[in-house]
């Protein structure tokens, strides 16, 4: 099953590269974040990755699809590759417990917990974790990692 997901992600990447869509995505994403300090740009990359995690819940599939977009975007914005990977990991990690497209829906469905009840319980914790991620990303940018 994992190989199938990676294969689909690679197919998406090939289509994005063949149609030259990746360059367009990188250009417009850099236009939104251009001129901002690297700390703000890293936060923007974290937000982008968290939103992408809704559409591509597989970590491996996401890496195959998104890293070719985030790496040049980070280079254009003055964010190091290490911070770019950190933003990818943070955006993929905790949001797996938030989005219903990840395995969360199955877990809470088996438990008999309604989705709105889960979000009411989890959103304050997610907010705290998101702020912690943003602070760690800012510290990484300031340390020059």
Offer a concise description of the structure.
With 145 residues, the protein is an all-alpha fold. The chain has helices at 2-18, 21-33, 38-55, 59-77, 81-93, 104-111, 115-143. It is built from seven helices and no strands.
Describe this structure in words.
The chain has 145 residues and is an all-alpha fold. The protein is 81% helix and 0% strand. It has seven helices and no strands. It has helices spanning 2-18, 21-33, 38-55, 59-77, 81-93, 104-111, 115-143. It is globular, with a radius of gyration of 16 Å. The model has no long low-confidence stretch (mean pLDDT 83).
Q: Which H/E pattern describes the elements? A: HHHHHHH
Query: How much helix, percentage-wise, in residues?
Result: over 70%
Please report the distance between the alpha carbons of the first and last residues.
35 Å
Shape: globular
How many beta-strand segments?
0
Give average pLDDT, whole number.
83
**Beta fraction:** under 5%
Number of helices: 7
Weakly predicted, low-confidence segments: none
The description of the largest β-sheet is: none
Radius of gyration: 16 Å
């Amino acid at each position: 099953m994992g190989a199938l997901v990676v294969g689909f992600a690679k197919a998406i990447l090939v289509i994005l590269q063949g149609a030259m869509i990746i360059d367009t995505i990188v250009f417009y994403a850099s236009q939104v974040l251009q001129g901002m300090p690297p700390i703000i740009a890293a936060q923007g990359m974290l937000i982008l990755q968290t939103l992408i995690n809704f559409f591509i819940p597989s970590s491996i599939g996401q890496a195959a699809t998104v890293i070719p977009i985030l790496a040049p975007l980070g280079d254009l914005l003055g964010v190091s590759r290490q911070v770019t990977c950190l933003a990818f990991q943070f955006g993929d990690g905790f949001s797996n417990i938030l989005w219903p497209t990840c395995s969360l829906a199955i877990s809470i469905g088996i438990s008999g917990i309604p989705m709105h009840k889960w979000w009411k319980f989890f959103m304050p914790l997610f907010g705290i974790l998101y702020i912690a991620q943003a602070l760690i990303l800012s510290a990484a940018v300031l340390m020059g990692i």
